[in-house]
Amino acid sequence: MALDSFTEGAVHEGAEWSGELYRIASTQFAGTADVLDLDAEARTRLLEPRRALTVNFPIRMDDGSVREFTGYRVQHTLTMGPTKGGFRYAPGVSLGECAALAMWMTWKCALLGLPFGGAKGGVRCDPTQLSAGELERITRRYTAELIPVIGPDRDIPAPDMGTGEREMAWLYDTYSQAMGYSVPAVVTGKPVVLGGVEARQPATGLGCVYVIEALLERLGWPIREQRFVVQGFGNVGRVAARELFAIGAPVVGLSDVTGGIVDPAGLDVDDVAAWVDAEGSLEGYPRAQAVGRSEILETECDILVPAALERQLTSENADRIRCRLVVEAANGPTTPEAESVLADRGIRVVPDVLANAGGVTVSYFEWVQDHQRFTWDGIELQDRLRRMMRAAAIKVWEGSEEHDVDLRTAALTVAVRRVADAGARRGIYP
Fold it and tell me: Which residues form the active site (predicted)?
């Protein structure tokens, strides 16, 4: 048979994960590998995920009909210990998205010194259009499909977009029923009564603020004199905005899926939160100027905190961003092209692998507690989180200054070097 008959239509390396988010993650990795002068073996072992599972399963809906759903679980590296990462419910969930997020989770864990590799997963669906009963059936069936690859010492899921304590409780129960005994360490982000920790829900937002505090001290910018805009008023953005407001920092802009609100004199974030609790969104908030969802990113401020979705700062709007510092509280909100434009304009970017790492850090605390059957109180957990996030921020800052590189490169070099060194020491089996 001719060679052409084998190569015709062949899939090139990495094509399984094709997608814009994976392109961003792999571009960032390639740049970091060049800075570190990684050898070809390390690049091969770290670029693509080690494992990926795609599942399709039927669910009976409330009206009696049957719908098919697709879910994923991607494990980026098995070198550092069990893998760790959330699972999300969203219409755009894909294999490429999960692969990119799993890679970023590896770097977060390595940067914070956590004994995990990165993982990510999810089910492609719109949770806002599903009942609680339908979501429970999806979660339990998805968990059952994942049982061969998850476990307290294999892969530990956690909440992400569209999921929370409720879904983690269903996962915990489903896995435990299959094992025949309770296994609380199989998942983090659970309700406190089931072995969760109170500090988990606000952890990502708080961790972001702790990073901001540490870096502003190094920059010599008093935090109470900086104007903040926070894009996103969900779990991460709401916590970050309220914490900034509590310490006296003016938050001049906020947004959610319905749009944004702006007040140059500073918003009363607690009042905004009360409005959202009562009305369900920022829409119609009467004590601020209403702006569009995209306009909020272009609102003049000192520090912009994207805390919503991926790919919010792009080549199309980067030249209109009016801030001095971007802090990525969301995963992948800045494309490489946008970051290049921002750098040319003198705007620094605090990368997601640092600013967004508070959630996985507290998940680590929860996992340790569940293994040891010993608990810390909420104040101690927050203190531990603050110390670890500040230490990581200072490490990144010092690396940036020492090697004259941007903050993302500094963070990724620390993380990638650690994982590459671990892989080299373990070798290749067989």
Answer: 120
